[in-house]
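User: I'm designing a mutation panel for Acyl-CoA dehydrogenase family protein and want to avoid disrupting the core. Could you give me a predicted structure to guide residue selection? Please restate the sequence first so the numbering is unambiguous.

Assistant: Good idea. Sequence first, for numbering, then the predicted structure tokens:
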Amino acid sequence: MIFSLRPDHDDPQVAELVDRLRTYLDGELADYERERGITHESRLGRADLEPVWRRSRELGFYGIHLPEQYGGRNLSYTALAALKEEVGACGRVLGHSVLGDMGGPLRAGDILGHATAYQQETYLLPLVRGERACCFSLTETDAGSDVRSMRTTAVRDGDGYRLSGHKVFSSAGPFADFAIVVARMAGTGEQEGDKPSFSAFLVDLDSPGCRVTDGATPMSGEHIESDIVLDDCHVPARNLLGEEGKGLRIALGRVTTNRLLHCPTVIGATRRALALTLERTRTRKVAGGQPLLTLQSIQHKVADMATELYAARSMTYAALAALDQGKDVRTEAFMSKLFVAESAFRILDQAVQIHGKEGLTQGNEIEFLFRKIRMFRILTGTSEIQRNGIAHGLAFMA
């Protein structure tokens, strides 16, 4: 893998897909956002998103990672990562809706394999077709990294269950139709030494006893989060996802894969930040009329930025290639997530520094990317959690 701000791909299939995706992102989707005045701070509604879901599906991108029987192309993880990197690098507000990250097939994760025929027909196949959207509701105010401390409970009730609790940071919640909710089975884990049992449910967000409220606005300024408030909400037994008591396993079953697949999007965004910074250093003049890039101090900064990006990208794709070969990459996934998050933050910090006051100004893309990238050191597992995972993996190495 050589360094490039616009990577080429040896695999003809991946090269063709990346080329078509770039054309769509930089052309039709960019025009769509401009015509609607969509910015990163816009409150997105179904009227904004559904046309993108449908068009992305028509072009073969929405759910492209899925098996062919679901309309996908059964992509390798490495091929999917190449597409996710391009989405991150494009700068489009709605890029997250092209492959189905936000409320679509990628958000639903691996639950297709756990769903009944009824659940597939009612929830998941419409999701894949871009007709419905979902959110994933696991986190609570006092149950983040320690998800087993969640307080949302499920009580068996005749032909179903009654759920009560308060979920936070449900991404895509503002425009989702249903949520994948993980709850603790009532009566378990309440006594010392008693192991809690968790189950997963498909919850229609218009059900009685279910309220979707505005979630906290993250520092990126994007309005994509919701709280899901459940107050004795009845969920039919047929909406139990998988077996009772296996919900946490379903929720966290693809955690290693998901941890790795978040990295290419961040690498793409960092790639864009470096490209914008290099353009700035070539066009911004210093005293004497010379470009900023002629200063050795600036040359050293961009050299370090490019080197860290190359290292982060190489590490991530090496781990993804091993995953495609069926290898256990849990430790490598922790390492990749940690290094990508920390190096991307350092790169964006330097990008802001080089842009000067403009890099501190709201509305400047570098300023937005700095805020967005800073979040990745916490989201999907803090850097400290990643270090814990690495240390645990090392402890069991010969």
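For picking mutation sites, this is relevant: The CA atoms of residues 65 and 331 lie 24 Å apart. The first strand starts at residue 134 and ends at 137.
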